[in-house]
Amino acid sequence: MKQTMAAKSRSKTISLLALFIGILCLYFPVTTTAVVAESGAAVDLLYLTLVWPGTLCRTGKCCMPTKGKPAIDFLIEDLKTMDQYGQIIQNSKPKCSFSINQMSSLIPDLYSNWCNLSCPCNDGFTNWKKTWCNYGRCSELNQTSYIMTALNLTASANLLEVFQVNGIVPSSSDSYKLGDIYIALMANLGLSTQVECVTITKGASNSTLLSKINFCVSADGQNFINCPFDIKQTCDRELWFYPFTRKQLKKCRKDYVSSGGLIKMATEKHLAM
C-alpha cells in the first residue's frame, strides 16, 4: 500500500515538473540562432527534424513522390550535425560521393518515411544526398549508418502514437494548446524535443499550425538527449494539427517531374561526385 502511494506521489511529481518546465519553455524561451560552423568544429549532437505533411499541404503545394507512397505520419526532413550551442556543423568540401547501392535495403523505408513532398514531383534522392554530404560526413558514422540512424530514431519517437495516447489527433475542427503538446512530448521523450509552427492568414485572422518536431540526439545517434539550447518560439499558445491524406498530393505529369531522375537499382546512376 505504501509502495502504491509512493508511486502515485512520484507520478504526480513528474507530471507537475513536466508542466512547470513546459510553462517555462512557453513564457521564457532561451533562443539561439542556427549559425553554420566549419566542418572541422566538434560535433556535440545530431539534430533530427520531422515535418507534419498535413501542414505542408495546407500552406502550399505538395506533390506525390515519383517512387513509393509516403507514410501517413511525420516525415523526415533531415538529420543535422550541431555543436552544443545550436550551431550547425556543415561540411564545406565541394566533392561528395553518395552511393544509393550501399543502402538498397533501406530504400522502401526511405520512400515511405523520408520522401520529399515538395513540387515538382521527385524521388527524394536529393534530400538523402544533401543530408549526407552536408552533415553526415561531419559525424562519426558512415553513409549507411547515418541514413539508417534517421530512420531508426523516427520509428523510436513514434510521434503519432505519443500524441494519440494523450488525446491529440489530427483534426480540422479542434485546436490544441501548445502546453499540452509539450507535456505529451516530455512525458515520452523528455527534454529532447523542440516544436516549430507556421502561421497562415485568412482575412483578419491568423492560425498557427504545427509544422515540425525537432529532436536532440547523442553524437553517436543512439539516444535522444536533453537539448542544450532552445530555438526561437514560432508557436502561439493555441495551434492546429490538420489531417493528412495522400489525396492532398498533386500527381505530376512526366514533364513536371524533377530532373533528378528516378532511382534505378543495380546501377550507380545516382553516384554523385
From TrEMBL:
One cellular-component annotation, GO: extracellular region
One GO MF term attached to the UniProt entry: RNA binding
Classification via InterPro entries: RNase_T2-like, RNase_T2-like_sf
A single GO BP: RNA catabolic process
Family matches, as PANTHER family: OS09G0538000 PROTEIN (PTHR11240:SF57), RIBONUCLEASE T2 (PTHR11240)
Family classification: Belongs to the RNase T2 family.
Protein name in the entry: Ribonuclease 3-like isoform X3
Organism: Dioscorea cayennensis subsp. rotundata
